[in-house]
Specification:
With 365 residues, this protein is of the alpha+beta class. The protein has helices spanning 3-17, 21-32, 37-44, 50-89, 108-122, 136-139, 150-154, 179-187, 227-242, 300-305, 322-330, 343-349; strands spanning 126-127, 133-135, 171-173, 192-201, 212-222, 249-256, 259-272, 275-278, 287-298, 314-321. The protein folds into two domains: 2-89; 108-348, 2-Layer Sandwich (BirA Bifunctional Protein, domain 2). It is built from twelve helices and ten strands. The strands form two sheets. Strands 1, 4, 5, 6, 7, 8, 9 and 10 form an eight-stranded mixed β-sheet that branches. Bound molecules: phenylalanine.
Length: 365
């Protein structure tokens, strides 16, 4: 056996005996690194005569190849063993019961919107949507609120910056869901029965007002629609929503530019343990009236603005705060907490993702 063969046998023995990747790397550096033993031998080739080189060169190269191959083989073996060990260690038994459950919950606002969609779908209403970034015409003008109308000031509107001379029109964050009435009437031929739930924005903030809140709009356009249909619809809706037949409504004359006549709708309630419980006649002992909705017969001018003939088509509309509906049914007292994203609040007031509201199963069961 030549010196080189003896050296290869020794190195290969050490390589095969290496028990981890660090030890293997140390052996590689000692043999093939910059100052390694084989590297040293390769450097001596330059000082040999061509004849000597022809003899010694192949032997040193064969030594280097043999050691390199041994290193690669041992490395693959060690890595394979490490992977096996890892797989064996990190094994998961998928048949074991879970020791933690998902933490997400359905926000009360989403829950109430689902409940509303379910209740109104049963009465033949579809769900419509519109943009939250709205233009002046849909949010105000088409709804019979002209430029100079004091109702514009009432809405505390968030306007976008004006975009230069002659620009189409000023954009804003919609202040109510009523522009969806306009969009629906312009897009679809009557008869129309829709609700439009969504976010609305007003520059206002205290315990009962947040700059963003939620409304649901209702719109019915058909022939021969009158206030009786409005009252019946609202009564049916509120009975289903509050899950009681003891709902008494009071329609009070009011004013909205887009409805004529207009009515504010109050519902009877009773104060119990610091909470308002909806139900009963507001004039009865221990009861009172609470303002809940804005509503009315759609103004002829609004119907005409949408290109429909108000002599042929009539309808009613209503708007109500979704957050307020949620607070009344589920007993929260501070609106701001709705939008804090506090996990404890969400765990307390949230709903299970799998408990979808249905009329047959009890709307909030
Ligand atoms: N848009 C009105 C508001 O935000 C509510 C409303 C809707 C009133 C539809 C009447 C008819 O105050």
């Amino acid at each position: 056996m030549s010196d080189y063969q003896a050296m290869q046998a020794e190195l290969t023995g050490a390589i095969d005996a290496a028990t981890d990747l660090d030890a293997l790397e140390a052996l590689r550096v000692a043999a093939l690194g910059k100052a390694g033993s084989i590297t040293g031998l390769l450097k001596t080739l330059g000082g040999l005569t061509p004849e000597e080189r022809q003899v010694v060169g192949p032997q040193i190269h064969s030594l280097r190849e043999g050691v390199t191959a041994a290193l690669a083989a041992r490395k693959a073996a060690l890595e394979g063993a490490a992977l096996e060990a890892k797989l064996a260690n990190e094994r998961l038994d998928m048949t074991l019961p879970a020791d933690a459950s998902p933490r997400g919950s359905v926000h009360p606002v989403s829950q109430v919107m689902d409940e509303l969609a379910e209740i109104f779908a049963d009465m033949g209403f579809a769900v419509a949507t519109g943009p939250e970034i709205e233009d002046d015409w849909h949010n105000f003008t088409a709804l019979n609120i002209p430029e100079t109308h004091p109702a514009r000031a009432m809405h505390d509107t968030f306007y976008f910056p004006e975009v230069g001379e002659g620009a189409a029109q000023r954009m804003l964050l919609r202040t109510h869901t009523s522009p969806v009435q306009i969009r629906t009437m312009m897009e679809k031929a009557p008869p129309i029965r829709i609700i439009a739930p969504g976010r609305v924005y007003r520059s206002d903030s205290d315990a009962t007002h947040t700059p963003m809140f939620h409304q649901v709009e209702g719109l019915v356009i058909d022939r021969g629609i009158h206030m009786g249909h409005l009252k019946y619809t609202l009564e049916t809706f509120l009975k289903a929503y509050f899950e009681t037949d003891d709902i008494v409504l009071r329609l009070r004359p009011s004013y909205f530019p887009f409805t004529e006549p207009s009515a504010e709708v109050d519902v009877g309630y009773k104060q119990e343990k610091g909470r308002r419980i909806v139900g009963g006649n507001g004039d009865d002992d221990g009861h009172a009236w609470m303002e809940l909705l804005g509503s009315g017969m759609v103004n002829r001018r609004v119907i005409a603005n949408c290109g429909l003939d108000p002599d042929e088509w009539q309808g009613f509309a209503f708007g109500v705060g979704v957050d307020r509906l949620a607070m009344l049914k589920y007993g929260m007292d501070d609106l701001r907490a709705f939008f804090d994203g506090d996990l404890r609040w969400l765990a307390h007031y949230g709903f299970g993702a799998l408990s979808v509201p249905t009329l047959s199963g009890g709307i909030s069961a």
